[in-house]
Amino acid sequence: MGNVLLHRKISIVLATVDVINEYGINGLSTREVAKRVGISEAAIFKHFKSKSDLLYAVLDHFSHYDIDVIASIRSKKLDPIEAIVCFIDTYAAYYENYPAITALTQNNDVLRYDPNLSEKIQDILFSRTDFIAQMLKQAQCNGKIKADLDSEDIAVMIMGIAREWCLNWRLRDYSFSLRERMLASLKIVLEALVIKF
Description:
- The protein is mostly helical.
- It has helices spanning 2-23, 30-37, 41-47, 51-76, 80-97, 102-105, 108-111, 118-141, 151-171, 178-193.
- Helix content is 76%, strand content 0%.
- The termini are far apart.
């Protein structure tokens, strides 16, 4: 019974992502989500108290991927620059394989105005930026990149490039390799930071 309920909740979360992808955050309808899962709209509210609670579950599901990616990269004990490349490459591959999830990255600003979601959005965005900033700081300590640059500024710039490529990719109907574009842009940034011997 417990596995069925867990499976149902995950099905609702994934259907919600698909609806947001197709109709936008303002077009999110629990009726449409229920239809896609094959349940009644009332059944959604047996699992989630409100639409806001459902959106929180979507963000929470999404944030678990972040935790796993960061833990995996740390366990590999990669060079900090390799860790940053691995981080961006992992997300680019994830997005290419699950394009609908990029709808969330494009709605962060809208979602943050919901008091129930604001902290979760901040946690997601800041954990990603903080990880990259930590890797950059470590690379600076190792003498690999210029020490006079602010690691947080660079981390925000890298995440901004990733978000901008996601938006372009969505607007162009996924017509190019997101991975190639994100990694090419990242390479340009990182090469500008590397100390040449």
